[in-house]
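Review box. Two proteins, two foldings.
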Amino acid sequence: MSDRAALLKGIRAWLVFFIVCLVLSGATAFPLVHELRWTEDLLRSLSAQEHLPGLMDWIERVRRGVDTADAEYPFLLYGTDWLAFAHLVIAVAFYGPYRDPVRNIWVVEFGMIACAGIIPLALICGPIRDIPFWWSVIDMSFGVFGVIPLYVVRKKIKRLEALTAPWAPPAAAVVSG
């Protein structure tokens, strides 16, 4: 396999991984009410209250809030539907670099910027929304872990670009007369 083909294969594998992660994180925002109930039941069955009481208290509080919103103000959950949709749309955008990585490197760079933006968002909005700091750290980890495959992809695209750049002979010396 040529260097170009190997790079393209690696780029596409990382992009598929990233797209699958985006789709999964988006899809899980739709059934939020049920997921929180299942998570709480699972944590109880694992005796999380004994080992991680802060996590258990937080999950219970969030579940109660989401249950209340679902029962009395279901339109509030429409926001998580849009969150899910945004993840799915962003995932579709990464088809561009999958098809033509060099031409669409900007999508990868946009994704890296978005990952970096998660950190100030969590640090600013977390306290405003009364989110425990340790949960904001979990949120920030999505940006940190999300940028890793994109960084790898960008490096590979830059190598691919160097391999596929048209060759130009060195400029001839100008002879003056």
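Next protein.
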Amino acid sequence: MSVKITRNAAKVIKRELDKEENKGMALKVFVTHAHGDHAHYGLDLVKPSETDTVVPTDKEIDVVIDLNEPFLSGVKIDYLYFPEEGFVITNPSQGNHGDH
């Protein structure tokens, strides 16, 4: 199971994780809605439990995921500044290249 975080997304995520009120928290990516051959995703900060699966990334950010959700394998988290500022989560390995 792999998770890719872009440089832009890592900067924003690390800024949030470094806040005092978020100490001990980890980033969680999850499927909000799946239909057909693709899914829509969400992000949250959570305190990982012993039963959570935590996946390390090359950006030194641990991500909590559900191993039983196939749409999470190969997920990519990006942060765009244009045309709208915010996170964009896709899964190119599952044929999902963005919301419709």
